[in-house]
Amino acid sequence: MAQLIEAETDLSVERRFNLGGTMICHGALVQNEIDVYAEYTGTALTAILKQKVLPSPEETFAAVAKAYRQQWDCEWLEPFGFNNTYTLTVRQQDAQTSGWRTIGDLARDAEDLRAGFTAEFAERPDGYPGLQEAYGFHFGSVRDMDPGLMYRAIAQGEVDVICAFATDGRIPVYNLLPLEDDRRFFPPYFAAPVVRSETLREHPSLRLVFERLAGLLDDLNMQALNYEVDEKRRSPAAVAREFLVSRNLIDNRDAPGELKPSESDSSARSRSGPSG
Predict the structure, then answer these.
(1) How far apart are CA 175 and CA 181, in angstroms?
(2) How many helices (H) and strands (E) does the chain have?
(3) CA–CA separation, 128 vs 31, rounded Å?
(4) DSSP state of 48
(5) What percent of the chain has pLDDT over 70?
(6) Are strands 141-144 and 114-117 parallel, antiparallel or unpaired?
């Protein structure tokens, strides 16, 4: 979003990363500390609006868009295209040995399994608390883990189940299996720009900029981009720019060089959710 704004308008963008999750990002937005960030529809519905899961992505988007306009004078613009839903994920070999295909299949073994969850997933209603209620079981132990460490932890046998994200490129790399959400507990998590309406009124050209991103990224695109950052340790800024250039949205002049991960803006949001 930032790179396209700077390429298409005369505006400069102040980037603020690592804000700590959805609730902090949302608070910054409604308190006029930031103007725009990318949020997930399911996170907004369940974690911010405290509403029940709706049956379709369209209904979910309509509900959050209406509520944000009415409550905070903020707009949801068209989603980017990918659905970064949570997915309980296990090792392929374990799934084959134990006959796990769905989340419900874990019930008979859950008390003997070690789970590795992010702090947000462990606390949010669309995370472990709600999952326990929906499926009627709990795991033998739960470890609070950084999202960047979960995948190696399960691959190395330190935990047995993680709350993976559907667009994470490490799922195939580590030979993991996302289990089917057979009770349809997780809502759709389509990412989209959320913008203060006042900002759009002051800078109407932003709406056209964001429209160019609508539907641009599907789950496989996002997996590939996340893999470049998470596993190849490339700069998120460089990976994003490379993608925009490949889609002819910006030109390749003055492209930034590769940065070390610590010098980059931030990794693609691994949801601190579907969160932040």
Answers:
(1) 19
(2) 13, 8
(3) 29
(4) I
(5) 91
(6) parallel
Closest among 190, 206, 147, 246 to 38, alpha carbons compared = 190
CATH topology of domain 86-178: D-Maltodextrin-Binding Protein; domain 2 (3.40.190)
**Per DSSP, which regions of 159-222 are E strands?**
161-165, 176-178, 191-196
Q: Would you say 126 and 46 are in contact if contact means Cβ atoms under 8 Å apart?
A: yes
Whether residue 120 contacts residue 273, with contact meaning beta carbons closer than 8 Å, is answered with: yes
State yes or no: pLDDT of 89 exceeds 50.
yes
How far is residue 16 from each of residues 37, 88, 264, measured CA to CA in Å? 10, 30, 12
- pTM, 2 dp: 0.79
Pair 82, 219: CB distance under 8 Å:
yes
Q: What digits encode the pLDDT tens for the residues 145-197?
A: 998 799 999 999 999 999 999 999 899 889 999 999 999 999 899 999 999 99
Structure tokens at 59: 């209904």
Q: How far apart are CA 112 and CA 70, in angstroms?
A: 46
Q: What is the per-residue pLDDT for 82? A: 96
Question: Hey, do 2-83+189-263 and 86-178 end up sharing a CATH topology, with the first three levels equal?
Answer: yes
**From CA 32, how far away is CA 29, in angstroms rounded?**
5
Residues β-bridged to residue 89: 162, 178
Which residue, 76, 73, 23, is CA-closest to 47? Answer: 23
Q: Give the architecture-level CATH label for domain 2-83+189-263.
A: 3-Layer(aba) Sandwich (3.40)
How far is residue 202's CA from residue 185's CA, in Å, rounded to a whole number?
40
Task: Report which residue type is found at 195.
Answer: V
Of the candidates 135, 125, 109, the residue with the CA atom closest to the CA atom of residue 274: 125
How is the chain split into domains, by residue range? Answer: 2-83+189-263, 86-178
How far apart CA 235 and CA 2 sit, in angstroms, is 15
In sequence order, the β-bridge partners of residue 123 are none
